[in-house]
Amino acid sequence: MSVADTHLSPEEQNRLRSELEKRDKELTAVLKISHALSSMTSVDDLVRETLEVLLETIGAHGGALYLYDEKKDRLVFSYVINTENPAAAADLIGKALEPGQGIAGQVFQSGQAELVSDAVHDPRHHRALGERTGYVTRNMVTLPLMNFQGKRVGVMQALNKIEGSFDEEDLDLLSIMGTQAMTAIENARLFEEARAASIMHYLGDISHDIKNLMTPAQTGAQTLEAVLLGTFEGLDRFCRECEDSAYPSRVKEVCRSLRELYPEMIGMVTDSVDAAQERVREIADALKGVIAEPVFEPASVADLIRTVLRTLKGVAEKNGVTLLTEGLEDAPALLLDKKRLYSAIYNLVNNAIPETPSGGSITVRVSSRPEGTFPEGAYVQIEVADTGRGMPEEVKARLFTENAISTKPGGTGLGTRIVKNAIDAHGGTVTVDSEAGEGTTFTVRLPYKSS
C-alpha cells in the first residue's frame, strides 16, 4: 500500500512521503558506508572511502576529513576531495590547523555540529586555505567526530551542496555515517597500533642480530685493509732493495690494479655495514615518530653525495640505470648531520632506481645561493631527478606525511618519512615535482650554514 492509497490529507501524505524518503536515504547511507568499510583495515583507506561515500550520498562538491594529532595538538587534513580542482585538494593532505582555527577547528573544540549557509561572509571561515587552492566555499556542514568513549578525535566536513544549501537532513545523514566511520577508523587505529607495537617488540632483536651479522664483515674488511697495506709496504721496500732493476717495475704493474681498487672496495663494505645498522635505527625512529637531536659538524656535501652514489653504483648498474652528478665541484661545505643527510639522499636515489626503466638515468644536482634569508635565499639545493615513470597523484599527495604510501611491492612508505625527518632536522624543505611518464624530481633546500 502506498501513501496515496490512504485516506490522509495531501499535506499528511507529503509529510509521510518526505519522512519515508528521509529514512530511505538514511538506510541507504548506512548500507553504503557499511559495505564500503567492512573489508578495510587501513586507516588511510577508511578515511578516503568514508569521505567519498559521504559526499556522494549528500550531494556535495567537496569535503575534508580531519583527524586530531594529540602530540602536535593539530587537526590534520587526512583526506580532501575537491571535484572542481583535485590537484589543489591533494596539496592540502597532511597540512594542519590549530584547534579552534576556522569553522572546523571551532566545531572540534565545541563538539557541536554547524550548518553554515553563507561561508563567504562568515568571519569564522578560514579563507587562507581557499585562497591557496582557488576554491570558494559557499556553504558547508561540519560535524565533530567522536570515538566510542565520547572523546573528540576529528572533524568531518562537506562543502558546497550541488543543489541548494545543506539542511538538517544532511546533518542527520552526516551524523549517522560519521558515527559508523569513526567506529571503523578507531578499530583500524587500534589494529595499526597493535601491529606497530609488535614490530617494535621484534625490531630490537632484529637490530641486535643485524649488528652481530655485520660485525664479522666490518672486522674482516678492516683486517684485510691492514693486511693489504702492510703487504704493499713490504713490496715497496723489497722493490727498493731489489738489485734486478726490471723486477720492481713488473711487481708494481701486477699489483697496480689491486692497489688502486682495494681502498674503494673496502670503503664500500664498511660504508654499507654502517648504513645497514643506521637504517635499522632510522626505521625504529620513524615507526615511533621519534626525531633525535641532530649532531652538526662541518662536512662536504659533494663527498657525502659521492659516498651515496658509490654505495648504490652496483644496484643501479644491475638495473641498467646510470647515476650522474652536476655541480658537485662547486658544492660548499656546510654544518650538517652527516648521517641524517646521507640517509635522506640514499633513500631518494635508492627509491628512484627501481622506478627508472633500464637505459634511464638519475641525476644528483647541487647548486647554492649563499646570500639572503632562508627559504628565499641563503640555501644549498640538492635535486634528485630521474627519468622514470613518475608517480600517481594519490602517492604524491601523501609523501612526507605519516600517511605516506609506497608503490613498490612490500614497500611501507617509511623511506619518505625518514627523508622528511632528516630535512626537518636541518631546518630545510623538501618538495617533489612528478608527472606520469616524465620522471620525478625531489628538491631539497638546506639553510646555508657554513660555520
Task: Describe what you observe in this structure.
The chain has 451 residues and is an alpha+beta fold. The protein is 53% helix and 19% strand. It contains eleven helices and 13 strands. The strands form three sheets. It has a six-stranded antiparallel β-sheet with strand order 3-2-1-6-5-4, sandwiched between helices. Strands 8-10-11-13-12 form a five-stranded mixed β-sheet, with helices on one face. A two-stranded antiparallel ribbon has the order 7-9. Helix 2 runs antiparallel to helix 6, helix 7 crosses helix 11 and helix 8 (301-318) runs parallel beside helix 9 (338-355). The termini are far apart.
Q: What is the distance, rounded to the nearest whole angstrom, between the alpha carbons of the first and last residues?
A: 85 Å
Please give the domain count: 2
Shape call: elongated
| Average pLDDT | 78
Cα-based radius of gyration, to the nearest Å: 29 Å
The amount of beta strand, in percent, is 15-25%
CATH topology annotation of the largest domain: Beta-Lactamase
What is the CATH top level name of the largest domain? Alpha Beta
**What's the assembly state of these chains?**
single chain
Q: Characterize the main sheet.
A: 6 strands, antiparallel
Order of strands, widest sheet: 3-2-1-6-5-4
CATH superfamily of the largest domain: GAF domain
Number of helices: 11
